[in-house]
Design goal:
This protein is an alpha/beta fold. The chain has six helices and 16 strands. Keywords: Acyltransferase, Hydrolase, Lipoprotein, Transferase.
């Protein structure tokens, strides 16, 4: 079995302070036996303005945020999914929201650019989000072979698009990572329901760290970081504030369940339209 961790934060506008907090949580999780750690979306900065993230964008493979996570992974001998890091695109005003996986030697072994961008208005409180103003969307799903299982990568708003997870499942995913920054309003309504659905319908473990608290920009995030098993059972949860959620992954049990409850093999082929 493998111990994994979802790291919950309440990030602010100061990158160095956020990295110090991330380092504290990484050290704690590694010290408690976790081998795969997942940081939340926007862990390095929750800016006062959306354009603040553009100012800290880095070229892929180089930059202080990536270097810090690389060093932490190597120091503690753990694999780290670095929630999201702004990474340069062809448009200098719209970097990618990149989730980067570092192995236990500190090498970046995979990168997923967020596909679905959060452009919504929440009618209940009139909050407006236009992520596409400052973010270039990604195009391709990403799955990675790791020592812990086949890992499918996604980010926050992706959670509402089950077709992405169906594709990751078809590609062989056993673990789904969903670093997030759900709003308080949408989190209360849908967070747990959507996470458990993605786990159940794909017979996958879900590791979903979130931002959880009040932020300097006036935004409140929902928190409730969770690790959920392939049967939809919540194996660990953190309510609000910074914290570490730990759980064990039993891949033998997952594969046995897939054999005895072969729902994945019962999917209709594309030509059989219902």
């Amino acid at each position: 079995m493998t111990i994994v961790a979802a790291l919950q934060m309440a990030s602010g506008p100061q990158v160095q302070a956020n990295l110090m907090e991330a380092g504290r949580l990484i050290k704690e999780a590694a010290g408690r036996g976790a081998r795969l750690l997942v940081l939340p979306e926007t862990f390095a900065m929750m800016g006062v303005h959306e354009t603040d993230r553009v100012k800290i964008a880095e070229p892929y493979g180089n930059g202080p945020i990536q270097s810090f996570i690389s060093q932490q992974a190597k120091q503690y001998g753990v694999w780290i999914v670095a929630g999201t890091i702004p990474v340069h695109s062809d448009n200098p005003d719209r970097p990618y929201a990149a989730s980067i996986l570092f192995d236990d030697k500190g090498k970046a072994v995979a990168r997923y650019d967020k596909i679905h961008l959060f452009d919504v208005m929440l009618s209940e409180n009139q909050e407006v989000y236009t992520e596409s103003d400052t973010t270039t969307p990604g195009r391709e799903p990403v799955i990675v072979d790791t020592p812990f299982g086949k890992l499918g990568m996604s980010i926050c708003y992706d959670l509402r698009f089950p077709e992405l997870y169906r594709r990751l499942s078809a590609m062989g995913a056993q673990i789904l990572v969903i670093p997030s920054s759900f709003t308080e309003l949408t989190g209360k309504a849908h967070w747990e329901t959507l996470l458990r659905a993605r786990a159940i319908e794909n017979l996958c473990y879900v590791i979903a760290p979130g931002q959880g608290g009040y932020h300097v920009n006036g935004r409140t995030t929902y928190g409730h970081s969770m690790i959920i098993d392939y049967w939809g059972r919540i194996r660990g949860e953190c309510d609000r504030g910074a914290g570490v959620v730990l759980a064990e992954l039993d891949m033998d049990a997952l594969e046995q369940t897939r054999k005895t409850f072969p729902v994945l093999s019962h999917r209709c082929p594309p030509e059989n339209k219902l």
